[in-house]
Structure formats: structure tokens, C-alpha cells
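Z., the sequence and structure:
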Amino acid sequence: MVAGAIRVGIGGWTFDPWNESFYPDKLPKTRQLEYAGEKLKVIEVNGTYYSSQKPATFAKWAASVPDGFIFSLKASRFCTNRKRLSEGGESIERFLDQGLTALGDKLGPINWQFMATKTFDPDDFEGFLKRLPQEKDGIRLRHALEVRSPTFDTEEFYDLARKYGAAIVYAHDDEAPGWPRIDQDTADFRYARLMSSREDEPTGLSPEELDGIAGQTRAWARGGDVFAYFIAGAKVRNPAAAQALLAKLGE
């Protein structure tokens, strides 16, 4: 079996401390995405969680990065922060209709992130999954589910994710020990959010820790593409962590 591609990156591309720790001196902010696209393989966009964008914005992002680069988008909070998920059809349609397919083949998985207070209700959650289309404007849509309540750590949830071909986000955050760390093969790709970088490590994590993550991502890649993001933790170190992991992977 041919292994899937492993794409490693960060969350967003604008963060003032990165002006000194990641971006070259005096690089204009208008070229920061272009530079990040040269050094990394993927970026998760958090802004789409809070507000909608215009098709021209998505097209501009796509034109700023090289072929093969991928943008993952956080789904709108209005889709996921609600009492009844299965009743959010209008919000889901509004999110998907904002023009995100202007990214073309640079559109990666959509991260549907749920608050820790959202507990697992099998019927309601299946009603939500039924509303997630598999394509839009002829472009495949891949869906990732980031759940934060331990009530989701159950075979019934894993089976639902498999039924609808959705990946369960592997979220590793040492600062949130109550979140479930679910490592399940439920789709033809994997989605990982790595949130344990430390400021006292120049590359965010020790070489040994990065070796462990490299091994884990290679194992995941035996089942399909892998999207891994260094997010939160010591945010200032995340670009260095992503680059160090890419180097270990030979990318």
C-alpha cells in the first residue's frame, strides 16, 4: 500500500512574535502567507470559526501559496455551538456557501470543533453528520470532528464517524487533561492538533518527542493522508516545531 502524504503546519500565519522568531526581518505582512507557504505544508484557518470570508479572499490565499499546499478551515461556531446540532442545517449551508471552494484543490479538511460542554447524543450527532455534504461545486469536502467531552470516547461515536467517513481529530493538549485523546481510524485521512509545544525548547519539543510524533504520523499515513498542526501551547515555537518535524520526516 502506498503511504499517504504527511502535511505539517500551524494555525494561522499572523502572530506578532513570529515577526522575530519565524519571518525574515522586515518582511511585509502582505507576504507572510507566501513565506509560510514555502516553509510549511498546511495551515489551519481559525478566522472562519468567527466570521465568514469572501470568495475573493479564498482565491487570494490560494494564489499566495505553492501547488500542493493545503488550507484547513475551522467551521463556523454557529454550526457547532448549539443545543441541537441536527437543527443547524441553515448555519451549515451558510458556512459552506461563503465561497470556500475558491481555494480549489488547496481546500483541505474542515474542522468541526465542539466545546467541552457538548456531550455525545447519538441521535442528534448523526442528524448533524447527515447534513455534511461530501462535495461542493465539484470539490470533495473532507470533515474532521474535534470533540472535547469524554462522553465521545465510545465505540458508538467511532462507528458513527466511520459510517459518514469523518475523521476524529487527535487532539494532544497537556493543559487540558480532561479532553479525550482519541486515536481512531475512521476516515481515509487523519487530522491531528498538537498543542504541547514549550517555549524553553527552540523547536517547541525535544528531538526525542519529535521523533515520537514522526513515528506516529508515519503510522497514520499507512491509512491515508495526514494533516498535523502545531497549535496553541507555546505558540511562538510552533513554526519551528512544524519545520523540525518536517525535517525529521524528510520533507
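The mean pLDDT is 96. The longest helix spans residues 207-221.

Let me know what you think.
H.
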